[in-house]
Each structure stands twice: as structure tokens, then as C-alpha cells.
Design goal:
The chain is α+β, with helices and mostly antiparallel strands. The chain contains six helices and twelve strands. About 30% of the residues lie in helices and about 25% in strands. The strands form two sheets. The chain has a six-stranded antiparallel sheet. Strands 3, 4, 5, 6, 7 and 10 form a six-stranded antiparallel sheet that branches. Its EC number is 3.1.3.16.
Length: about 270
């Protein structure tokens, strides 16, 4: 846990994680990295020790890769219009490709560990959701694998930007109303399989935006309207208090899983 608000290029961020009321160990991890302007949350799985190792390893891999890609494609304004065979035409696309490559690297690292240590029957893995602002970029890159979530509070409304990659969400989208699968059955995670299909997007951030990254221990226990209410009264100097309030709400609701909340508040000016 990082006890202080961390200053990044154009925002301030704070994170808090808690084992909850029923789990012995905390397999959630979060990262606020000043070297790469990266904020991310990972929810590990695989039983005692394996889940925590998976989430920590994935975050380390992502941070290391994105720190070396702080300005993708060599320059924030690169267009490559002189190359008729180029598939990358702007800096946002370059940054999205760099984020996807970092996720592929993290997945390959975890999958190799599973194979090397013969964890086929108890493969470790992790969700991973993050936001990254490359140096000199006017856009924010989000990336997502699994069911940890990304929200944005803007114009007095909370919007969920990520989509849960779960059987439950898939069933809802197909119109199922009965015999729904458990909420926590993942369709994707880093580690168990040799390849992944992450969701990577570019967003135009605005002054005053508040981004919340959280594990399912929070969003599975606390209603959307309650999360929105906490972010609506948060001040730029009260990011830590808002995180503590969100974790407290999840604990009060039962705390059946590990709980992690990270908030990034973008500058008003």
C-alpha cells in the first residue's frame, strides 16, 4: 500500500487495498508509477501465494515495458504518412500498440512461469486494468483484461469505461435472465493461456476528470450510485479519503473478497 498521494504528469493518484473480511491473504495489487505515468490494478488468482505473485509480476512487467515506451514511435507527433505501407498513422495508435505489446509480454511471462513450474492444474493468473499517459501525449490509454474495472467521473456522472470479461457479462449481453453463471468466471486473464485479446482504447481526458480503477471486491459489493456519490463529493486534496470511504463501503457490505481502489484526479487547470 502506498500511503501518500502520488503526483504524476497531469494528475494526482492514491490507492488502497484490503484483504477483506473473509480472505486470509490479499492477492490484489496496484501500481502508481511516476516513471511511466501509469496507474494499474491487478487481481490475482491461483490460490495461496500464486495469485499475489501473478498480480505483482504482471504489474512489474507492464511498468517496465511502458517506461521504455514513454514516447511511442519516437515522437508524440509522428504520423508516418510518407510510408505507404504504414499501419500506424498517429501517436495514439502507437501508444495503444505499445500497451498491447506490454500486456502480451506480461502474459507470456506468467504463462512461461506456469509451464516451467508445472502449474497446469492450478495456473496462476491475474486480471489487469490500467491507464497510461505517454510523455507528450494529449490522450489517455486504457487497457483491460478480466473483470477489474475502470470508471470515469465527469460532468456529475459516473461512467463505466471497461467491460467485464466474464461469462456472467456475456450471458447478460445475450439476453439471459435465468440460470446465470457465477459472476467471477473469467473469459480472459493474464497467465493461464498462451495468448490474450485485451481491450486497449484511447481517451481524451478533460481537466477535473476522476478515474477509478478497482477490483471486483469493490464493484461487486458497492452499488454504482454509491461509488458515484463518493466521487461526486471528492476534492483534489481528498483522494485518499475517497479511497478509504470506498473500501469501507465494501467492507460494510460484507468484504467477501480482496478490495482495491485507486483514484486518479486530473488537474483542474
Amino acid at each position: 500500500m502506498q500511503p501518500d498521494t502520488i503526483r504524476l504528469a497531469t494528475c494526482s493518484a492514491f490507492g488502497l487495498t484490503d484483504a477483506g473480511r473473509t480472505r486470509r491473504e490479499n492477492q490484489d495489487r496496484f501500481l502508481i508509477d511516476t516513471a511511466s505515468n501509469l496507474v494499474a490494478v491487478a487481481d490475482g488468482m491461483g490460490g495461496h501465494a500464486f495469485g499475489a505473485r501473478a498480480s505483482a509480476t504482471a504489474l512489474d512487467c507492464i511498468a517496465a515495458r511502458l517506461a521504455t515506451d514513454a514516447m511511442p514511435c519516437g515522437h508524440a507527433g509522428a504520423t508516418f504518412t510518407d510510408d505507404p505501407d504504414a499501419t500506424v498513422h498517429d501517436a495514439s495508435a502507437c501508444a495503444m500498440r505499445a500497451a498491447a505489446d506490454a500486456l502480451d509480454h506480461a502474459n507470456a511471462t506468467l504463462h512461461a512461469m506456469n509451464l516451467r513450474e508445472r502449474l497446469a492444474h492450478r495456473s496462476m493468473g491475474t486480471t489487469l486494468t490500467g491507464i497510461w499517459q505517454p510523455t507528450g501525449s494529449a490522450r489517455l490509454i486504457s487497457f483491460h483484461v478480466g473483470d477489474s474495472r475502470l470508471y470515469r467521473y465527469r460532468d456529475d456522472a459516473l461512467t463505466q469505461l471497461s467491460r467485464d470479461q466474464t461469462l456472467y457479462q456475456q450471458a447478460l449481453e445475450r439476453g439471459a435472465i435465468e440460470h446465470l453463471p457465477p459472476r467471477n468466471v473469467l473469459l480472459q486473464a493474464l497467465g493461464p493461456l498462451p495468448s490474450i485479446a485485451p481491450v486497449v482504447e484511447a481517451h481524451a481526458w478533460l481537466p477535473g476528470d476522476r478515474y477509478l480503477l478497482c477490483s471486483d471486491g469493490l464493484h461487486g459489493e458497492v452499488a454504482h450510485r454509491e461509488i458515484e456519490a463518493v466521487l461526486s463529493v471528492m476534492t483534489p486534496h481528498g483522494i485518499g479519503d475517497a479511497c478509504r470511504r470506498l473500501v469501507a463501503l465494501a467492507l460494510d457490505a460484507g468484504g467477501k473478497d480482496n478490495i482495491t481502489a485507486v483514484i486518479a484526479c486530473f488537474d483542474d487547470v
